[in-house]
Write a structure and sequence with these properties.
Hypothetical Protein Tm841, Chain: A,domain 3; 13 strands; 280 residues; 6-stranded mixed sheet; Rossmann fold; 4-stranded parallel sheet; alpha/beta; 26% strand
């Protein structure tokens, strides 16, 4: 269903927005690409997350990810503009962490200032919450300038922390400079990280999962009242649901529990857990 408002929101599948929220808020999501043992899939559409994480430990070679083609975005932009939309705000994964915005830039050039590209400086629902806030404003028939201001404000209110259960997959991906060197025994530690301003920062390491979770909860409590909260996980739904119950009181909206997209799972591996909060 095409929205009747004049501003449309486009994002990529790294945003991890649940399908029901995508539909309710009229957000258009363009899937990234994931290649597993030589076969390429549309992220979130052609390979279930359950199957991906089940296969991951036994893959003969590491899975890889790629941005969709510029043509994929161009088709989306053209369809929305031909439907009566006047401006498109295209919100994407941090440019420091992905080449997605380079691809989108190529697609947007044909449409002039009708397409505005926005670096979320985040990933997963750190990015997704920005798109959801923008879409909520757009559905209220806000001006493009107002929708953009809403998105900028949301970007500045995102908190994102996570525990990576094993560093092996992050090390393989080569996306984080301080993990490129040999880690030896450190690969068995639990890594706590924060995503801020397009950078993944190390918060610390622990030897036990229980201590890491305790630290995550303590950090989340320090955020204070939240408008939105998401508990992210890679194939550990019960644990994530328990964490959501613990933090439920902190958020105005019911917490989202999201099994992270395969395009992120490639890098973090199974049994990771993360928290994203949008402060009030």
């Amino acid at each position: 269903m095409v929205p009747k408002n004049t501003v449309a929101i486009v994002t990529d599948s790294i945003a991890d927005i649940p399908p029901e929220e995508v539909e309710a808020l009229h957000i258009t999501v363009v899937p990234a690409l994931v290649t597993v043992e030589g076969k390429t899939y549309l992220d979130g559409e052609e390979l279930s997350r359950d199957e991906f994480y089940r296969r991951m430990p036994s893959l003969s070679e590491p899975a890889t990810t790629a941005a969709p083609s510029p043509l994929a975005f161009e088709k989306v932009y053209r369809r929305l503009l031909s439907s009566g939309v006047e401006r498109i705000l295209s919100i994407h994964v941090a440019s420091n962490l992905s080449g997605m915005l380079n691809t989108v830039h190529q697609a947007a050039q044909a449409f002039g200032d009708r397409i505005h590209l926005f670096d979320s400086k985040q990933l997963s629902l750190g990015q997704g919450f920005q798109a959801m806030e923008a879409a909520t404003a757009a559905l209220k028939d806000a001006s493009f300038e107002s929708v953009l201001e809403t998105t900028l404000t949301a970007r500045g209110r995102i908190n994102f922390i996570a525990m990576i259960n094993t560093l092996e997959y992050l090390k393989r991906s080569g996306r984080i400079n301080w993990l490129r060197a040999g880690m030896g025994d450190l690969l068995r530690l639990k890594l706590l990280v924060r995503v801020a301003d397009g950078v993944i920062e190390r918060l610390g390491m622990t030897r036990t999962r229980s201590k890491a979770l305790s630290q995550l909860l303590s950090l989340a409590n320090s955020w204070g009242p939240l408008k939105r909260l998401a508990v992210l996980h890679s194939a550990i739904p019960e644990e994530a649901a328990n964490v959501a119950d613990i933090l439920r009181h902190q958020s105005s909206h019911p917490p989202l529990v999201v099994d992270v997209t395969t395009a992120l799972g490639v890098h973090i591996g199974p049994s990771a857990i993360g928290l994203v909060g949008l402060s009030k």
